Predict the 3D structure of the following.
Amino acid sequence: MLARRFVNIRNVFTDERLSISLPLHYANEKCGSEDEMGLYCLSDTGLTTLDCYVGDQGTVVVGKCCRQLEDLNLRFCKGLTDTGLIVLAISCGKTLKSVGVVACAKLTNISLEAIEYHCRSLEKLSLDLEFINNKGILVVAKGCHLLKVLKLQCINVTDEALQAVGIFCLSLELLALYSDCYFLSDKGLEAVAAGCSKLHILKSMDYADKTFITNEEAIDMFR
């Protein structure tokens, strides 16, 4: 039923904790491709199933069949490596506007380099990754000038990365920095507030009392 109804899907959300299945003949009828892990594509713009273990082979199928993809969210995909995300960036980069990656432990700065090179229309980026550091954020900031939303929960990111955001991401409207960004300080936030004139929402963890400061008050504080 889903396969017949949603033939123009442009958003893909994968979470290894989900287990959703559809009759295989619907998938093969539309795309003719099957991933060994149970990920199937509907058509040039659609995805049918989100199974329990999505890795590089699954993303290859998405890249092959969903060429109009605009919104990609990858969560807890233990089998996904830089190779798989690079394939997606190459195949769907021209249409991708939003990318979110959470707890995909094998992804590194190499994936962000691919996003910067192929996804120049990107407007939203959300990262919660252990092995991402300043190098990856610097690359994205310099190449993805249309970014409007940036959300980071990366333990190895420092003020240097935010200074690059303040210089290059002039369209930024929302910045969210979460509790694992231990090496950020007011210096980085000041750079963003000074450079990103369109910024109107700022969410930053206040480590003194473990609360968030947000919106105009926070922006005015750092300008």
About this structure: The longest helix spans residues 82-92. The CA atoms of residues 42 and 74 lie 19 Å apart.
